[in-house]
Amino acid sequence: MKKFIKKYITGEATPHYMTHPLAAKRAYNFSKKMKIIVMLRNPVTRAYSHYQMEKQNKQEDLEFEEAIKIEPSRIEGEFEKMQNNENNDGINYPHRAYIKSGEYLFQIKPWMNLFPRDQIMFINSEEFNLNPSLIYSKVLEFLQLEKYYLKKYEKLRKRNYEKMQDSTFLQLKTHFENHNKELFDYLGVDFEWNNQ
């Protein structure tokens, strides 16, 4: 009697794989053939959303402007501690790294240095929100899975919060302009965050 073995594709997700300095090497050691999907959001709105999540979880007492002002001193040395101690998951980094977490290129390079480019897919979060059906189809194609139609695309973890101050928005937009340009040049794609 012939035994049939079903093959499954499985996956999981967390933003901490991007921010943890040892994640890429650990993933590579686990499976060199895995496919990686990286969804990137405009770092300005990502920073504010990150802050709002921490505030809602009662992990942040400061106002956003104060939090980003003192961010460098809050996270100083934590990335290096995580890098040098595999049991260190960080305290203020990445949880208070509202700006640093949006400087994507230094987080992406370790993955790109280990995995072939054709095993990594980059998705613009804003594009996904505008056209989830199209991006979902591209993801299935990237994973070499059959086409599948979802009846609806429900947005999870929605939060309502006050609009960011215009002056803060402009400050962050200016901060991220060069980071974004370097990222786009490196990936050969422009998510047009600098035009928003």
Count of extended strands: 2
Strand content: 5-15%
Whole-number average pLDDT? 93
**Radius of gyration, in angstroms, nearest whole number:** 19 Å
Instruction: Outline the biggest β-sheet.
Output: 2 strands, parallel
Describe the strand arrangement of the main beta sheet, using strand numbers: 1-2
Model regions low in confidence, pLDDT < 50 over at least 5 residues? none
Q: What's the helix-strand series?
A: HHEHHHHHEHHH
What would you call the shape?
A: globular
Q: Would you tell me the structural class of the helices and strands?
A: mainly alpha
Helix content: 40-55%
The CA-CA distance between the termini, in Å, is 62 Å
**What count of helical segments does DSSP give?**
10
List key phrases describing it.
single chain, 196 residues, mainly alpha, 10 helices, 47% helix
